[in-house]
Amino acid sequence: MSTLIIDDEPLARLMIERLLLPRTEFEIIGQCGTGKDAVNMINQFKPDLIFLDIKLKDMTGFDVLEAISINSPIVIFATAFDTYSLKAYDYFAFDYLLKPFNEDRFYKSLNKVIETFKSKDTDFLQHKIQSLLDYIQPKEQKNNLLKKTIPVPLKNKTTFIESDKIIYITASNSYIEIFTNDKKYLLRNSMSNIMIELLDSNFCRIHRSTIINIEYIKELIHSNFGEIDVRMKDMKQFRISRSYKKEFLTKIGVRK
């Protein structure tokens, strides 16, 4: 079965690839980390199976399925958390992997793929995918309108930070530090989870421990070794890691 791996986390793609390699029934024909690349690759290669991250940097996995011009392949969704959707996946989707998943859960999903592929019940799968999109998309659109703030508990109260006021976010052990123009907030959360909560497309992850709001970029600084730093308007400077550099440059419209 021809297989595409679509996930914006390089380590997640590597893990899926590692788990797939011993299974000779599957041939990995490509990998990508953005929705735009995913749509192009699905249309071009017409895979039998895709592993599809729910939250990509430039669009959702649902947007990808809406945008492709071919019948949907078998889809295994991957999600870090998405509480309201999990029930929908159970009902509508072929299968989903809740990150972090273990090998047993992964191979159980693969065995289910093989059984379905042999049965060639593609009309049934198409119906399930379309039903899922019909169910999910209105909620996604509603959340995009409502989710403009990030709640931060502070002692006996909760402060709501407007997302467009956030300049950057950094990792601090099991916490994250959220920086605005006038204050720093400490929140118990992970970088992956906060990226899902930040529906604003202005946010971009540039390092495993750094998320920035591209509206607050002052300049890029290039070294002689191909490395790039980003300097924010408050003069704070961050290194852009190699694994995030391509997606970052694409997002801000800068060619390498």
TrEMBL record:
Keyword Nucleotide-binding: no
SUPFAM superfamilies xrefs: CheY-like
UniProt domain Response regulatory: residue ranges: 2-114
Entry's transmembrane regions: none
Domain HTH LytTR-type intervals: 150-254
Keywords assigned by UniProt, alphabetized: Phosphoprotein
Pfam families: LytTR, Response_reg
Coiled-coil ranges from the UniProt annotation: none
UniProt-listed PANTHER family: STAGE 0 SPORULATION PROTEIN A HOMOLOG (PTHR37299:SF1), TRANSCRIPTIONAL REGULATOR-RELATED (PTHR37299)
Record's protein name: Response regulator transcription factor
